[in-house]
Structure prediction request, 211 residues.
Amino acid sequence: MIWVRGPGAATTKLLATQAIGSRTATLLAASGVLEHYPLLHVVFVEVNTSWPAWTMHTADEYYRAHASWSAPKLAELPSRYMRRELHATFQRDPVGIANRAMTGVDCLLWGGDYPHPETTYPHSVQVLGTLFDGVDDADVTPIVGGTAARLFGLGLAANRRRRSRPVHREPSPQRLHESGSPSPRRAGATVTSRPRATFPGWSRCRPMPRR
Prediction:
């Protein structure tokens, strides 16, 4: 986080922090890291997705313009590696979606960002409907979950089969409390959380297969 004080600080510091994504992406591509590790995938979280298109275009322009002293010499332009190995999350970013022809859809990952102030909850369905109005399903599917499933090995096909069977789910403590039922904590119940490593698919995380 880049801290800015004074008038306009709340907005400016968030925008400045997200701008780090462009600099980091260019460094990873232009330094040869992404070329040397073709199975590496880097996810930029909470930085939105308007910047990848500009970054890809500008990085290529500078790499070509200064080719005589740019080092290392890459087999392809920087944008090629960014498009293949970099991903960024967003909540509401129609500019990033509009630029998908340049960036490809694999670098766009939608997320609700709950419980932060910029979350789309509890209006995520409406937000998605507006964002993807007129966008082909072939592009929508990877952005809203398909790419993340491949990236983290989550296995959406298996999850669909599981959802086809009746599943009993206990309401969360928050829902119990909001519905008027006594909070489990107040009632003396023990509320536990499952360790991260036990979630389905966590131990199977692997490099995302290329298309």
About this structure: Residues 181-206 have pLDDT under 50 and may be disordered. The first helix runs from residue 9 to 18.
